[in-house]
Amino acid sequence: MINGQHALVTLHGKGRKRRQCPLWPWTEGVLAELVKGRSANDAVFLSRYQRPYTRFGIYRLVERCAARVPALEGRSVTPHIVRHSSACHLLQSRVDINTIRAWLGHVSLETTNIYAEIDLGMKARAMALCDAAEPGPDRPWKEDKGLMAFLDEL
Q: Rounded to whole angstroms, how far apart are CA atoms 28 and 106?
């Protein structure tokens, strides 16, 4: 932990974008063990040739790992799918959209809204917040005896 807060990791994204994200203490421990004895500027994840993974190498690694999960058989799993799923899980956990935007490194909320798919559970919770009063009769004027008597006399 840094200053009583979560440790941070620097991520390198598309367009040479860099951003920092917090780590859970468990993740921090695993990564600390992984980089023990390395320089602070060294890449964390290395291929079997001790070279930093390329984006294509990460793609293949995710693909191979997903292929070993029986529940994912026949499904295409890519790093982008993992990113998209993470954004959806954050949204389902009621993390506000602006925090998700920052987490994903987006400049615009419009870009983040692409990831913010709303599931049926979220729709049900939204409906519960807007719960309307019990519906009345379809034609409330028919219940007004004075009005009906007046109309009968016409």
A: 24
C-alpha–C-alpha distance, residues 43 and 57, integer Å = 14
Residue bearing the bigger pLDDT, 137 or 41: 41
Rounded distance, CA 96 to CA 116, Å? 10
Q: Are 102 and 109 in contact (CB under 8 A)?
A: no
Residue reference for tokens 């034609």: 139
Beta carbons of 22 and 7 less than 8 angstroms apart: yes
Helices (H) and strands (E) in the chain, counts: 7, 2
Q: What is the H or E stretch that residue 25 is in?
A: helix 25-34
Interval 70-102: pLDDT, tens: 999 989 999 988 888 888 888 888 888 898 888
Q: Residue ranges per domain, the chain? A: 1-53, 54-120
Q: Spell out the alpha helix ranges (H) of 93-144.
A: 97-104, 109-115, 120-129
- Are 50 and 59 a contacting pair, CB within 8 Å? no
Q: Between residues 117 and 15, which one has the greater pLDDT?
A: 15
End-to-end CA distance of the chain: 83
Please list, in sequence order, all residues whose beta carbon lies within 8 angstroms of the beta carbon of residue 106, skipping any fewer than 6 positions away: 112
Kindly report the number of other CB atoms within 10 A of residue 133's CB atom.
Answer: 5
